[in-house]
Write a structure and sequence with these properties.
The chain is an all-beta fold. Helix content is 2%, strand content 49%.
Length: 316
């Protein structure tokens, strides 16, 4: 067993040690207990494994300066964050030493350990956020380098009511904030009526991925107006000064179920001071329509499909 000397303390290791060109430690895997003195307190990195959740020891990583980059923890540990103490199994850091992300759980999913098994270990926690006190199960928290809360990522199935500039929205996946603490984006958990420059739109992104909530489909500008929205249930009609109309409706695609099943592709709409950009197919460029010389209105759109919200029947 070798001893890896780091800026945070000595780490016993049994495997290779990766280093930067300046000689500082980049990556190493602990083989025994040790204590690292970090900007968020003393932490014991993971050094043991089990048969289900953590079959391998996850490596420690450092920046070239010697400050920590990622520290998987041996046990659940109370970690100091800018919004209070949070129990964590994994902590990542910014290059300046400030906390970047905190994960209450850090189990590895496999055929023997499912998302449901991991969720069973997740406890609701109370968080003081810029939108007030919330209590929910979270996958993780993200922070800016200035210490401000960047986002809250929810466990699948969790719904939190979020007060937004356009009213209360039931959020899944999570929500994000600007460095100044302004609500920046939210992921609607159900189709939500939202007033925009083009009229009322039912906001919902059936393709939303819950990896993290740093960026969501319903985005607000500094003035509180909607700057981006996704919908599966609303059409946009643009009429030019000559009366010519262009109608944009969410498209359809073949579902992974096959056998003729189809699902709706979320249509994404961006609003700027100069144009409205509508993207019907994520694999193709959107269409930008100048605001000058056009009038925009919205209309309900309920496709004659089995899954107008994009929910795949064979996956339910």
């Amino acid at each position: 067993m070798d001893l890896c000397k780091t800026r945070l303390g000595d780490v016993p290791v049994a495997g290779p040690i990766e280093k930067y060109t300046n000689g500082s430690v980049h990556i190493c895997s602990p083989s025994g207990a040790c204590i690292l003195e970090t900007p968020v307190g003393n932490l014991v990195p993971q050094y043991s494994t089990d048969d289900l959740r953590r079959k391998t020891v996850q490596a420690l990583s450092f920046y070239e300066s010697g400050l920590p980059k990622s520290i998987p923890l041996e046990d659940k540990t109370l970690v100091k964050t800018p919004i209070g103490d949070v129990v964590a199994e994994l902590v990542t850091f910014h290059p300046n030493g400030g906390i970047s992300r905190v994960f209450p759980l850090n189990g590895k999913l496999s055929g023997y350990w499912s998302q449901e098994d991991e969720a069973g270990l997740a406890d609701p926690i109370e968080l003081m956020t810029p939108i007030g006190l919330i209590r929910t199960k979270i996958i993780g928290l993200s922070f800016y380098e200035n210490g401000a809360l960047r986002s809250v990522t929810l466990w699948p199935g969790e719904i939190v009511e979020v007060s937004t500039p356009v009213g209360t929205v039931k959020s899944r996946v999570g929500f994000s904030f600007s460095p100044e603490g302004r609500l920046e984006s939210v992921e609607p958990g159900v189709p939500s009526s939202v007033q925009t420059f083009a009229g009322e739109i039912l906001a919902y992104d059936s393709d939303a991925v819950g990896i993290h909530a740093d960026h969501n489909s319903l985005i607000f500008g500094k003035d509180g107006l909607v700057t981006h929205i996704a919908t599966t249930l609303t059409s946009i009609i643009a009429t030019d000064k000559n009366g010519k109309k262009s109608v944009f409706t969410p498209l359809h695609r073949e579902s992974i179920c096959g056998e003729g099943e189809t699902e709706v592709i979320p249509m994404h709409i961006d609003f700027t001071d100069e144009y409205v950009k509508i993207t019907q197919n994520p694999n193709l460029p959107g269409v930008s329509i100048p605001i000058a010389g056009h009038r925009f209105v919205s209309r309900p759109c309920l496709p004659g499909l089995a899954s107008p919200l994009g929910i795949i029947p064979c996956s339910v």
